[in-house]
Amino acid sequence: MNTIIYTSVLGFICMVAEILNLRKVIIPVAVIGLAAILGLTVMEWGTTATHFNDMVRTDNFSVAFGSLAIIITGLVIALSSDYYKNEQNHISDYMAIIVFTLVGGLVLLSYSNMAMLFLGIEILSISLYVMAGSRKYNTSSNEAGLKYFLMGSFASGFLLFGIALIYGVTGSFHLEAINTYLASATAVSPLFYLGVLMLLVAILFKVSAAPFHFWSPDVYEGSPALITALMATLVKVVMFGAFYRLFSTAFGNLGGYTNWLIALVAALTMVVGNLTALQQVNVKRLLAFSGIAHAGYLLLGILSITTDATSALFYYSAAYALATIAAFAVAIPVFQSAGSELVSAFNGLGKRKPFMAAMLTMALISLAGIPPFAGFLAKYYIFSEAMANGFFALLLIAIVSSIIGVYYYFKLILAMYTQPTDESVDVKFPTVYVVVAVLCVLLSLALGLYPNPVIQLF
Amino acid sequence: MYSVIAMIVCFFSIAGHYVLLNAQFLAIVHIIVYAGAIMVLFLFVVMLLNLNQEPDKSHGKLLRVAAAISGGMLFLVLLLSLNTSETGTFVLPEKSDIGMVQHVGKKLFNEYVLPFEISSVLLLSAIIGSVVLAKKEA
Amino acid sequence: MNDQITNSSLLTILSILIPVFPLVGFLINGLLGKRVPEPISGWIGSIAVLASFVCAATIFFTLPATESLSFNLFNWIAYANLNISFGFLIDPLTITMLLVITGIGFLIHLYSISYMHGDEGFTRFFTYLNLFIFFMLLLVMGNNYLVMFIGWEGVGLCSYLLIGFWFKEHENNNAAKKAFIMNRVGDLGFLLGMFALLMLFGTLDYAAVAQAVQGYPVNHGLIVGITLLLFIGAMGKSAQIPLYTWLPDAMAGPTPVSALIHAATMVTAGIYMIARSNVLFAMAPATLDVILIVGVATCVMAAIIGLMQNDIKKVLAYSTVSQLGLMFVALGLGAFSSGMFHVVTHAFFKALLFLGSGSVIHALHGEQDIRKMGGLGKYIKITFITFIIGSLAISGIPPFAGFFSKDEILAKTFEHSPAIWIIVSLSSALTAFYMFRLVYITFSGNYRGTEETRSKIHESPALITIPLIILAILSIIGGFMGLPAITGLTHAFSTYLSSVTGASAGILPEAHHLSHATEYVLIGVAVLAAIVSILIARYMYVTKGQLPANSDAELNGVQKLVSNKFYVDEVYNAVFVKPVVKLSALIYEYVDKLLVDNVVNGVAKVTDLSGRTLRLVQTGSTTFYLLAMVCGIVILFVIRLLI
Amino acid sequence: MENALVSVPHNWYLLLSSLLFCIGVMGVLFRRNVIVILMCIELMLNSVNLLLVSFSAYAQNADGQVFVFFVMVVAAAEVAVGLALIVSIYRNVASTDIDSMKKLKW
Q1: C154, C132, C9, C149: which is closest to C84 by C-alpha?
Q2: Domain coordinates of chain D in residue numbers?
């Protein structure tokens, strides 16, 4: 709870800094502030508390996922110092919105009432609609913002309809009250199931699971690269946290009613994500499809509600987010210097900048799920989760699609190491990008080599 | 332009339903927010962009048929699942004051104070966003 | 007692150090990059591997063959009721592989310092090479399948990077991609096998799996399934039908890479894996039969294709595939130690041959087509002599190393079935033929290149020749560690491995041993066949100075020329040469290029196509997306509510 | 007045809001003008409001009405951001046709 308050205050500070003519210090202040908030959050580990008539709860789940979300946002903000160096007059607006996005995310990780779920999703989404369209004079950015906005609000309609139906049946927005209804009702009303399905659809939309994934490649491609990084990591992690929270508390007694559907969607998502990614030439699109595919794998973690599944989901989220941020930290300067976001912009990077190319390679290897990086064990954990639940056909699809997936990550690696260099383009990696990339890769490696502290968290 | 007017009519009739459902305060708020603020905003943008001359084009035939079918299917599905429910036995209580200001206000500022506060973050974010997006740069 | 404890803790430290050295070398070279001057980075890499070799050798001499050392470094994955540690297992099988990897690895590193001299990617090359050694060491040292899998994936990655090392040529990229895809198919098998093992036994530890599997009946369906899956993994990595075509293409990489990865070490990983799981495989004789069939088929087919190749490295590549097939034949017969023995001797002479071919290519400044060589024996004597030694070894001429290991496998096949013995012997004779065809075309006769290039031919520097000489010596004496039974002496190698392979020996049915007389006859026939093949090669390519046709049009001309000579020639041509040449061309064209390539490419194409189609769904129209969303919702509702 | 609705079964309200919701959905799918689409989305949200209020009224539970406030807040915020986006786009492409925004695909 405190985390949410502090973060809101930080966002407010970012906003008013402009009035006080403190633009230069916004980013350092935001990063340091987030670090302090991270410290405070971690100290809450082990406590369980309800706040404000049980609107939000602090528990180990919210602390763990919340810390991850804060780390992700902190890294992205660190990158923004260079990314927005030519847009100083907007920097405080952008930073405030990004921090507010995090507020929405934190709400989503600790809610215990549907009202908070709804508001969390909306804070997160509205901030991102704005950020996606923030390159005002770029038609791609416009289009991305509009597409995201229209489809997101459309999905919000379904989310609300679902919430309304569940409220109508149970008479409450409170997650535990809903669960109590489920446990005590002799015959659950069909309206309730309809509500659950509507809610499920809206959340599947937000995590970009097929067939509700169409927005994400277009939006990822059109948005400013840094915001793409934020969407690919923070939104995905947070939405999966919210997803899991919803199904572990409110629908804990649903008795696997949705499992079959989720399994179906997961299979479709993995296949569509990986297959479509094969053909992509735009790196942001490629990462979008990779994100879709990863959403498919993460859905496997939702299928069961156990402490093991929680750990697996958390580990996977962390592995995915770290690798993706590392990839973007290398990719963004390349995009900027090449003026292109195509795979060909990476041609010969292995020769020009061997170190950063190596970082990107490692990040992609982690995403592809090859040891010794965290991505491999993450897949392993989440796959064994599916196995434990008896989804063997799903497991098979997951493994096959993950093997197809390796191919397109290597497309990028191949471009870096085997294509001739365009000598005229000189890529400069600002120090902060190097630091972020190295940090993420090292963390990813550390997690991969020694997963115990994280995997035994819950 | 006409659609905006039609929309306003629709909002007023929904407000009428609110009154019938004993949600008097909400009905007023609804009119103020929707008809008074949101639709004015719409009208304002329509005027600003000078859109009223432009005829509203339609999609291709295939897309329209597909849209009709899928929308119809959605309604059918909703209908089917609603029909099976047994909520028809509920009858509206004759007299109720739950929609009165004092009652709703108490709920809002006791139980739902946190969402109320948090929605300020949402509004703040939306304000900054709208300004950032709509402001003309020099 | 106390002494033993200190001894074993010393060994533990030593064995941990083995993979650490190459890792350190990799880190130094990788992090410093171009800041390290050229020869220094090469020496850093070489010395790192040498240090590992010294450690491995120390362990070899101190650890008795009957004992093994297994320890867990840390508790790696503790999750649900599953506990997988990151641990090493040091036993005779591991030590054998360790010595081969680090020993030959060191020689090849040394060789590369000179061979890669002046290449702009010099440091990068050694970085990859050290990384490869590191992963390969992990692969053989792990004490459970998951550690092995990490090494397995790692070497695949390094192989991929090294095949595409000279990335300027498009062909190399395709080769790298092909290798990668085929290996992934194999990896899929391995991964599924691993999951199945986990499901069935709840552990991935070698010892625990071997223990647990013995509670099942022989040929239990699940065990057969698991072993088949693991074998698919082995097929990918060790280039067996149908997943072998990547290996000849992999020759696009630098020659030391071909020698190290695609001949001596990585490709034998599949054999190591099966030998390591010998108890598991022994419980599934049905799988062993499959392995035997695949091995025989690969062995023969690759040997036939080898007859027609004109690229010096391609010939060696197909011979590697063929020899790997032979190793699988041994595994399929349950003769795990014989298979491993051939792994070791093959590592010696195939590394020698590859490095020799590298020296030839080096001397000719990159020429790889044997039709443009000839008479090189005069110019590059050391290479010539060592190459002949290697060829004699691979042909199975006593007392060279290949003779002993090949003979052992041949004897085993005869025990099993004389028909297989005939097929395998035939392929062995073909091996002798094409190897000497290569030798004669390359080294004897007159130089066929331009005068200008001839003047530049020179023997390679000492850093290249010294590894050649050492490997040549190993190829001569390497076989003596496994003397055939008829000599009455102990088979040192199989005795050494017996603590590992012994467990499976009890499970497999006892083979009836051959009488000494039969064995003499077998050896005699095999050697004779090899010598005759060599003589035929000599007759065709030295006495008559035949040359492989440059194109199809010339082939007819050459054959006309041949038919004008002796009548014997015609008969010989009609009965032997023509069919074989045809068959070889046919298999290469149809089976290799058409069938195998197309099946593999077909899978890739289908994936590709579906990717293309799916991509088109992304039309860019928001309305369409919304429509798709509504349809998805309706379908989900219908599924859940009405059905 | 107060007794007017007593005899109306709750199902009718469910039906009405579903119908409104589906009209909204179909409007979104049929129209090409982004502003109209946005209005249709508003209609969807309103149908949800109606649903919530009817549930709240029939069950004598004010939670639903409080929730409607939040929906209104969000709707207002969404409209503000959405219209800002539309204005910003109109400056670039001088159109509010959804099919004029098809650049990002494949």
Answers
A1: C149
A2: 33-94
